[in-house]
Fold:
Amino acid sequence: MEQNEVILQMVDICKAFDGNQALDHVNFELGAREIHGLLGGNGAGKTTLMNVLYGLYKQDSGDILLKGKKLRIASPRDAIRNGIGMVHQHFLQINNWSVVQNVVLGSSVQNKWTMNLAPEVAKLQKLCDRFAIDIDLQVEVGELPMGTRQKVEILKALYRGVDILILDEPTTNLTPQEVDALFVSLKVMVDEGLSIVFITHKLREVLSVCDRITLLRNGKNVTCMPRSEANEETLVRGMVGEDLNVKDSVIFSKEIREGTKIDEVVTPVLEVKGLRHVTEQGIERLKDVTFSIHPGEIFGIAGVAGNGQLELAETLVGVQSKAGGTIKYNGRELNMVTAELLQQGLTYIPEDRLGDGYLPKVNVAQNLILGAQHKQPYSKNGFIDWRKVFEASWEMIKEYNIKTSGPKDTAANLSGGNIQRVMIARAFSHVGDSLMLAHCPTRGLDIPSMDFVYKKLLARKMQGYATLLISEDLDELLLLCDRIGVMYRGELVGILHRSQFDKYEIGRMMSGVKS
Amino acid sequence: MDQILHEVAFFLKQMMLTMVPFILAAQGTMLAGRTGVFNVATEGIMLTTASVGFIIAFQSNSILLGMVAAMLVGGLFGLVMAYMTTSLKLNQFVIGLAFFFLGTGISTLIPKLIFGVSLVQPVIPTLQNLPIPLLSKIPFLGDIFFNQNILVYVSVLVSLLLYYFLYRTSFGLEMRSVGENPKMADSLGINVFRQRYVAIIIGCMLIGLAGVYLPMVYTGTFTEQITKGRGWLASALCFFGGWRPLPILYGSLFFAGIEVLAYRVQIGTSAIPYQFLIMLPYVATIVVMVLTFKRSTTPKFLGSNYDREKRTL
Amino acid sequence: MSKANQTPENKFSVRKLLSHPVMSYLLAILAAFVASGIFIALMGYDPFKAFQTILVTSFRTPNGFIQTLLKWVPLTLLALAFTVPYATMKFNIGGEGQLLMGAIGATIAGILLKGLPPILMVPAVLLAGTLAGAIWGFIPGWLLYRYKINEILTTVLLNFVTFALVNYIATEVYPNPEVGHPTTIRIATEGWLPMLVDNPPLHSGLILMVMVAIGVYAFTNRSTRGYELVATGANPRAAGVFGINVPVMFMMGLVIGGALAGLAGGIEVAGIQHHLIEGMHSNFKILGIIIGLIAKGSSLAVPFVAFFIAVMEVGASAMQRTLNIPIEMVYIVEALILLFVLLVDVVRRK
Structure:
């Protein structure tokens, strides 16, 4: 590919949060009509760098040059004005507003005082045709599937006439088939004159779609190379750094593992039959879900986010009530009154760690005992033995490499990755538990920590414990699970044994095709 | 028959008169709420503006000047509250309670400082009725609806304007988006801080007007705790009006109806101890909140401050 | 603008100074005094004399000191009535009403249980007050639990209900016609709290309050339930996901809060007033909330802050008598102290 003219440069960008250096003199360059992969593990600083470009974060130092001209970007408004658009990993949409309202919000519409959006609809329709985007513009956004909601986000940027489009982990919520379709439309956009920054932690994606790759680790530049010069091994080395021995790792191991043979005579640890869940609004979110997990098994749940995984997890945990079906734990049926499974010994790693797992205002120790506050040795006669709690906390901090000044440190000072380590430490430390429910347990972790969690999960399996692993990362499931059940619209469309694993087959099931 | 008709007419006319502070205070609270700021100082602001507005009106002998002063004081409260919640990101409820307390204190302090502790109550003239030409001549209805003081008309007009603004203009759409998802609004180039400042300040000015109405309409005097919880009732109105201008307007009518009813029954009969009639508006409010809890919608980010650089995942 | 460029020592020392909780309080109080002092001066009074009166009256005479202790008792309980639900991030604005309910309960018990020996009567009167307050906390708690109705509104609206109820009981149920102001007849003397000091009178509610304050501290900071209360306040979703029954925690907080305020009302009746009198809450108003907020919700700090506020309140009455400065001035000072405490936090965060 010929060398394009450079349209954007970010020079020596530094950014710190509460003393943590998130970006350390990072440089980045984007050519015209280029798809530029921004690669790195979690916590590498990819999103932070692009948030600086989009005006969401203000850099401590460093310059942004657009077509050679120095630019001050104080807010997203400035970014938009300069033709920069961003699709965030977690869509920023108002569910009960229509697609049009979501898209035109904040742009100056023609009929300001009557809100007759006909001119805007016409303009959007034209854009949709040009970029081959198929969306009903009048539908409420909340009713759309994840793949379409992403298109709404892309449409938002296109509508504002951006030249530079930043996509933050755009494949997270897509099936493998949808990922392929996205890559095709990226090419269309580039042909139409856009330049694209593609943030991802997945090697295969950058290698299949990007023209150039910039690799970050721990907030620093590692390398930047055209795809033609890139090879998997150097990129892996660069992403992982020195902290991980690639040969011993689970992630990069070439070894083929067999699935555990299930002994049908042994009572399953968890047996779910015909489980249903209906929301307060009367929407059925779980339909007749049936599966069982045996000792020493890792059972995976695959699916695009929002197809009932959260409801499944929360029904098992007891936050949401079931509308039908039975749940048996070690052969005994549970009534599921207030968190019964948790009391029986389930450990839980919630998906949304900030919302569902983390107490920001209290200290690290108080976070580490959440859910175990009644258990020995922390609690005696209704009172908490704080000395014991602090001792145990110190051990967890050391073992799980949580970066904090100690158990008395306020949890609000923890960074995202360290909060996830607290979740992991909490789940793996409270022993005597034969079942673990891990929902996206490696979200936000850098690669060495991710590998650490994988090792822990496999060690559990070896010890004969059962694990229910719900994940949006298909690679993670394929790597670890003995069986995978695929969810679509609250239904378990099929269950595949390890010998039957096939990425595109699972992808088809993720979009509702029964096996 | 005539007697009943007369009573009905009187009742309705009183109701129109009584609904004004509810409407203005609730719409003011609602406006800030739609950008995600829950103003719990409404009662305190009303007390202060009632007191300051009354004094200015008394000293200057101008009701209009009193109103303007009340709105300015309300706006000043709003500015400081906006600064503390939006810019300094202090907890909205804590700040609101602090200003409720401050407002309550100021409302009794200022008259004592100005008038001293005197036995003669200062009095201002009450608001004159302003009959609307032609419309006020409609038999029966004309006198009820179109022969009222100016703030009755203003309060209805404000409600309709707010409805139009919030739901029929792109500016309203932007303002509502800030309360539904501030991060989204910010990412689309909407100035979240400016929206919140504007909404809080204008909201507090409306609350100020609601406060000063009280001494101007019934007796022309200012008494301690003149609001009798109307500020809190206005907040409750926001909840069961789903933070929407028109349901708040209807709700205010209902509140006014209960207040007038309690007052009329109190005069008319001694069968029910009057203390229970005094309780009626507060108990009725709680009952209505129970009855409407399912349909009640609130702005998604009500009560939470926005920090752009706060990292989420 | 890199942080590394700033002189670390300089910044560190200022931060360290501010980070000591007592220092930040002193700074906030100083700032509030300066701000209100300017206002007092502008109004034509002598701010130094005013503040001297406010701060010193309590310690000049035995009577002043005992007055302060008598105020300290209900103020501490009312503040705890705010901070216990505040641990779950629920706001109990109904302390006044719950105190009055406690007073009503204690008065009715004290009138009806006439003839019991003091050893039974005193606990019965206090218990009746506590229970009545707890019920008044339970109503908003239940409405929150069952219908998710905002507790700020329900607690405050119930205040207004109580005001009318007090008037009803004092004028219709047990009126004392000899008094011009709505007042009930006296409770039986067997129900009066024993005195610690007879002249000037200091009742034994003081000891009870100190015990209760220690109990509340042990509960919130040491017990497992207290941990669950705090975890609920820190993040209700997370607490719920990990098996804590969050709505019950909310309700428990409000019921305990109501009970504490009710006890304050019971002590007021059994220790000082010996009858129910309209307006008996006017000495406290929402001071409990302000104290709780100044203490930042810490049940350890509450008694200290409450004592300071009690000193200021007693001083304010003297200031009104001797200097003619309206007593409400002290409310402004208190509100400013709260605002400056919050502002010092902002400076510290930076």
